[in-house]
Specification:
Number of helices: 11
Largest sheet: 4 strands, antiparallel
Number of strands: 4
Order of helices and strands: HHHHHHHHHHEEEEH
Length: about 325
């Protein structure tokens, strides 16, 4: 038996490193500060929402009962309610603002900086195909982002369910408010993934960190603004009519106006006076989205966001293929 054979027989058996796990570590290693920031943010907001769903609500409800406030009153309920209100307002606000920050980070740090510094090309020469590199750049952050946003959304839903009697008593936090609507359904997670895709496309197009940061932030904010501005058109409205006075509606008001003797419908937004200064008004109408429209509106908008995200992901692979000369 030769010495080579003896050394081979005596050498310990080493399991080859799992490529997927090694690639995931390679993605996370340069972004540890962002990972720590995201984890700390989720922990702080999540802990605050857990407190709000338990002792925070109990203290706020007790303060309301002791204050003698009524639904039509505007009165102070003390520091206990103020602390509770700050926490439950901050939770949905963070979920609404986070996508724009995710888009900026994805454009500047996740993609733009690596293309600008040449780190990406180095990775492509280390037996990592460009398409696999991009897939890891999308999949690993997406898993972390989804886990955090889903957790915070569930905690927001817990607080929303728990505070129903207090919310009805003091008439606060309408379900259709921008932050409340985003933070209490599937939209927070969908917008976060959209921001990731926007940032990646911005980084691949601009290949520089600072311009990609600005483009990722602005692109995400613009898409969110367009969708949120047209939210009331995503589902058929409920209409109410009245003959003598303006009809009562519930939920999110979309439009209202008057009906003339000739059957014309005139929106109040087109005139300054309540009856539009007309003497032939025979009725009034109002269009709104009641609370039962929350999930239809939520799911339709989520579907649109997911579709746009999918298109952006496909576009990112196409851009990478063009950049690498079809070697992706």
């Amino acid at each position: 038996m030769s010495a080579v054979t003896v050394m081979s027989a005596g050498a310990p058996h080493r399991r080859p490193a799992r490529p997927a796990r090694a690639l995931a570590r390679a993605v996370l290693r340069p972004h540890q500060s962002a990972l720590w920031f995201w984890g700390l943010l989720v922990a702080l907001i999540g802990g605050g929402l857990l407190w709000a769903a338990g002792p925070g609500f109990d203290a706020a409800w007790d303060a309301y009962l002791k204050s003698g406030c009524r639904e039509t009153d505007y009165c102070a309920m003390g520091p206990a309610y103020q602390r509770y209100d700050m926490v439950v307002t901050l939770g949905p606000a963070v979920l609404t603002v986070a996508p724009a920050l995710i888009g900026a980070w994805a454009g500047a740090s996740l993609i733009g900086r690596e293309l600008e510094s040449g780190t990406a090309k180095l990775a492509w020469t280390q037996s990592v195909a460009p398409a696999r590199w991009l897939a890891a750049k999308l999949a690993v952050p997406a898993a972390l982002i989804v886990s955090g946003t889903v957790l915070l959304t569930l905690l927001n839903r817990l607080v929303w369910w728990r505070e129903e009697p207090l919310r009805d008593a003091v008439s606060t936090r309408d379900w259709f408010a921008v932050t409340v609507f985003t933070g209490n359904g599937t939209l927070a997670t969908a917008y976060a993934l959209l921001a990731l895709a926007v940032g990646v496309v911005a980084g691949l197009l601009l290949r520089r960190s600072l311009p990609a940061l600005a483009a990722g932030f602005a692109g995400t904010a613009a898409l969110m603004g367009v969708l949120q501005g047209n939210r009331d058109h995503l589902w058929p409205v409920a209409e109410t009519r009245a003959a003598a006075s303006e009809p009562q509606w519930t939920g999110m008001l979309v439009d209202r106006g008057v009906i003339t003797a000739s059957g014309d419908r005139i929106s109040n937004s087109l005139c300054e006076e309540f009856d539009c200064g007309r003497s032939d008004v025979v009725g009034y109408w109002a269009q709104s989205h009641p609370s039962s429209h929350f999930w239809p509106l939520q799911l339709v908008e989520t579907g649109i966001v997911v579709a746009v995200t999918t298109l952006l992901v496909l576009a990112s692979f196409h851009l990478l293929r063009r950049r690498t000369g079809g070697a992706a």
